[in-house]
Every structure is written in structure tokens, then in C-alpha cells.
Amino acid sequence: MQVTDLGRWLWAAGFIGHILLFTVLIVRSRAQQFPIFTTFVLSNLVRTVVLFFILKFGSRHTYYYTFWSLGALDTLLQFGIVYEMYAKTFRPLGVWASDVRRAFLSLIFGSLIIAFGLTMAAAPHTKLPIQSTILRADFFSSVWMGELFVGMISISVKAGLPWQAHVGRIAKSLGLYCLLDTLIGAMATHFGLDQSTAPYLVLQQIRQFLYLGCLSYWIVMLWKEAPDPRRMSDELRLRLIRLQARVEADLHWIRARHPS
Length: 260
Fold this sequence. Notes:
Helix content: over 70%
Largest sheet: none
Radius of gyration: 21 Å
Keywords: Membrane, Transmembrane, Transmembrane helix
Shape: globular
Order of helices and strands: HHHHHHHH
Structural class: mainly alpha
Strand content: under 5%
Transmembrane segments: 6-27, 34-57, 63-83, 104-123, 143-161, 173-193, 205-223
Number of domains: 1
CATH architecture: Up-down Bundle
CATH topology: Rhopdopsin 7-helix transmembrane proteins
């Protein structure tokens, strides 16, 4: 299998970028704050090494099977990041508000339905059925992740929550990348693979450049200290938890008295 010089450069740049980001997460003690995000970064490091050796010593079939299997794992970890960012934003006291949990579940299922519908509507031009499946799966994951991040950010903005902390920096940059990735996925399904693979390869290189920009942003922003939030005492924390429980109980009582 042949890899262009640009492809090698992008591969090496991504590998070095993930090493730097993982180092920042460990040295600056961010790994304890964001364990799922750290796992995502580490998995990309392992993925690069595994695919490199398969490309060099393995078969074409083994490479593509491994590539798309690890791509599915990557999508699951991105969903884990969504949950982690959502929990950090909407569960600062360690307790989910019932309305927030309900909104999160609605966002998950609603985005799944929309992503599935858009994927089924896409009709990529390919020579082989497996190529169509690959393009559709790639497009589905891009649309789903983009919807989840946009939904989370919009809910947070409406709630007036601060977005200068590290959780906001991770969510905003990954959300923007997912949105652009959705556009790339749509273009990939439009051009297809039946005539030539050149447009698809160019789009993948654009995707890699965008992700390198995302990596660079994470490295710089996670190295810096986030604005120092005011620390609350244990007593105030307990009072807020009790207040939240009381408000939820009052809401249930009001809804019971005035059903919609």
C-alpha cells in the first residue's frame, strides 16, 4: 500500500501531537479531571502505532478491517467525552437534576434519529457495497457527534454557564471539529468512490489538517490554567444539594397539581 509524502507528514504530525497532548494531560494533572478524554488521546496514540505496523508488514485487508474497527472505538470514546463534558458542566455538585438528565437523554435519542435519517438519505456512489457501508458509517458518526456537541453547548449557553474553563475549551473545539467533519462526510458521500478515490483522499487530508488544529488548540489551552473559580465550602455544597432536592420536590408537586 502506497502512502504519499503528505500522508506520511500528517501521520507523523498527528502522532507527535498526541504525544504532546498526553504529556500535557499528565504533567498538568488534567488526566484525573478528564479520564475519558485522556483515554481518547491514548487510544489515538495506540491506533497510530498499530496501523503503522500493519501498513508496513500486514495485508490490505487487515489494515482496512483494523482501521474501521478502531474508528468505531473512536466514535464510542467521543460519545464518552460528550458524557464527561456534560457531567462536568451540569453535575458540578455530583448530583444530576432530573430535568437535566431528561434533557440529556432526549438529546441522545433525538440526535440518533436525525443522524440515522440523514445517513439513510445519503446515497454514496461506490463500486462495492462495503464502500457504501463505510461512507455511511463515517457520515453517521460525524453527524451524531456534531449534534451532541452543538446541543450541549446551546443548552449551556442558554443556562448562562461559563465556557472559559477547560471543559468548555475541550467541548467547543471538538464540537467545531465535528461540525466541519460532518460537512466533509457529506462531501465524501456526494463524490463517492465509483469513479476515483482522489476526492475522498483529499477530503481525508483536509480532515487531518483540521484535527491537527484541534490538537494544537488543546495542547496550548490545557497547558494554561483555567480561570480560577470561587471554591465553595463543604457546608455551602451540602446546602446547595439540599436546595436542589427541595426545588425538584416542589417541581414534582406543582406538576402533580397542574398536569399539562
